[in-house]
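Supplementary Methods S3. Input chains for the assembly prediction are listed below.
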Amino acid sequence: MQYLLMIYADERQVDAAIEADGSTVMAEYGAFGEEMGQRGVLRGGARLRLTTDASTVRVRDGETLTVDGPFAETAEQIGGYYLVECKDLDEAIEVAAKIPGARMGSIEVRPLWEM
Amino acid sequence: MSGPSTAAVEAAVARAFHDEWGRIVATLIRVTGDWDLAEESTQEAFAAAVVSWSRDGIPRVPGAWLTTTARRRAVDRLRRSRTGATKTQEWMMSVAADDSRDDDSGIADDRLRLIFTCCHPALSLEARVSLTLRTLAGLTIAEIARAFLVPEATMAKRIGRAKAKIRHAGIPYRVPPAHLLPERTTAVLAVVYLLFNEGYRATAGADLIRSQLCEEAIRLARALSELMPDEPEASGLLALVRLHHARKDARVDAAGDLVPLDEQDRARWDGAAIAEGTAILEAALRRGEPGPYQIQAAIAACHGNARSAELTDWREIVGLYDRLYERTPTPVVALNRAVAVGMADGPLAGLARVEELSALGVASSFPMLEATKADFLRRLGRRAHAERSYRIARDMAGTDAERRYLTRRLTEVET
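Predicted structure tokens for the full assembly:
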């Protein structure tokens, strides 16, 4: 099954951590990517730009409305994601728990709709 | 040749339902991977049993008859809906039909697999309890709804959503591997304990003891304590439910009324169950890792091993409640501690504890607090106050038996 692992955290806090010691954070993510790549579960993933760079789009009555900012103003934002292929939810949870961001923020595990 | 009487068939079906429902559903889920299909096929097998057993006689091994019938119904249903997915399921069923019943962790009980899945932490606690009662204990949605005081439609939706999540999110149907066992255990124990309590003290309605639910919970607790020999809380839970259940015959009188502990006929307690529960508890305590279940079992053992109400070691019980409150500071524990203090140090000390609790504002949702207060006031001879408290408690009581007990107390203090 495929799961989207969404990394939520307070992006300002994450930013500050990267500012303070970016190489450690990068090394941790690098090690995670290497481990999961070897395990063969990774299907994709990316770090996202800050929500200050986000735009939200809606179409109402045929008219496209674009507003600056994320869908909702929340205390924690999605800072990145991984798409993984796992045997079951237990494996997805195990992988999610290894994402370095799980220690600062939270990982939402969402199964993909199987076509 | 005439078949067995209708009454005999009904009794046999009822007994088989109690003994076999959970196991058959659990097996069918394992072989089909489809919870609704498993439940519906099992339901149909029981309906078929009523007809078939009346005509052909009650089979020697009803469980085997029901399992085979439920399996056939499942295959029929799958054949009727000829899609690619069900072809795979049919194949899976034929493979699974003669597999050994072991899985990764070497546990051969399908019901255990089912309860660990029902109690997966990715489900809400409400969903876990409801799903366990439905699939494992075979309670109807109406019964579960009544137990949790929610409309039937709400309960149906809750259970439906939980099943959908198991399917969509890929919650595995298995006993977790050893490294996941400890963290999954707490959730499972909590559900088994809630299940026992549901049977021991039905939340609402006329039925005070639903022995079958209690026995179901005891069976599960026993299986869990065997599965997790290194988890003393699993043994603690088993000891606790054994010790409670040992008093069941004395807890309710002929009229179905609740008999308070100090008035119970201790000759009607199940001495063998008390001895077994105490021995299990002692073995668990020797591991030196006490937890809430072991402490509660120790309290139950104090009562169970006291030859009379007067010989109860209330000071020991107060100490145990103190330790329990450190771990689980809930109003119920605080109230029980107040009762114990009232027995150890007299009703005035107990009343003071209850009034502290009242001041916290939990009383409105909590009839037993008012009833306890009333008991202390009665023992202090403050009849008018006692009367008022009994009246409030009676109006809040959840079961008919509690209402009758409180009414009896009320007439004793009425002037």
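The beta strands of chain A are 2-9, 42-47, 55-60, 63-68, 77-85, 106-111. The radius of gyration of chain A is 16 Å.
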